[in-house]
Amino acid sequence: MELRHLRYFLAAAQSQNFTRASESLHITQPTLSHQIKQLEDELGMPLFDRVGRAVRLTTAGELFKICAKRTLQEIDSGRDALSELENLKHGSLTLGVLSSFGTFFLPSILASFNAAYPSIKITVLRQRTGEIEKRVLDGELHFGVAYTSPGADQLKVEPLFNDPLALLVGDRHPLAGCREIACNELNEHGLILLTPEYNTRKLVDATLAVNGIDPRIVMEMNAIEPILATVRHSTLATILSARLVHEMPGLHQIPLTPTVTHTVAIFTRHNSYLSAAARAFIDEIRLRF
Predict the structure, then answer these.
(1) In the chain, at which residue ranges do the beta strands (DSSP E only) sit?
(2) Domain 164-262 falls in which CATH fold?
(3) Per-residue pLDDT reduced to its tens digit, 95-149
């Protein structure tokens, strides 16, 4: 049974005349008769009493008319719902973002998007790059904003901007107020770093190795907020995005020489369909950069 069978049946039931019904459907009368006969054969009972050119519904036909009408109404409602979703009247969006992006750029983007599309429900997850890559690939996120990495070749990556790393220190650190620091001087200072699974940590390790530095790593943590809080209250330092000094008062960023940067990018799956909501949100991000 196909949808056309239901539509043809309802047209014939309404007009009670196959010729008029076929004209309204823009098909030939023999085609309509054949389609109705197919439907009756599949159901195993007649739906119409044929009396010359006129037809009328049988008892089975009257019952089936109710069901057919309800079925087509549900399908039409479903199409309307999809149309509304595509037009951004309803729907939901889940994205993963880096901590720094979520702090400094996302709030204004969320505000603009919500003002334009107030009926779209948005879920934002702050995650590390590896988690974002995996969840985008698995279809758990519509898209992500993360640092580029060598392992992201399975994803479509659209660069947005470069994010410089810096030595972050608190008021009590002897380097507070320093204008810059050479990478080869970092082994003189106790460091708190992210744990090794983070892309930022991998970039830091690679930079230190290239400069022949054996860092004095005093602590490792798997979250940025406690690292910043500990740096603020101690004479230890960390290497993170320079923008993070604005996360809390009492932090200072000291640029590294040579400059060390991450590239922040939009991550989507190759050859995947992006919903209208995801496309609109990505366009909102692009406007900022």
Answers:
(1) 48-51, 54-57, 92-97, 121-126, 143-147, 155-170, 181-182, 190-194, 216-221, 238-241, 251-257, 261-269
(2) D-Maltodextrin-Binding Protein; domain 2 (3.40.190)
(3) 999 988 998 899 999 999 999 999 999 999 999 999 999 999 888 999 999 999 8
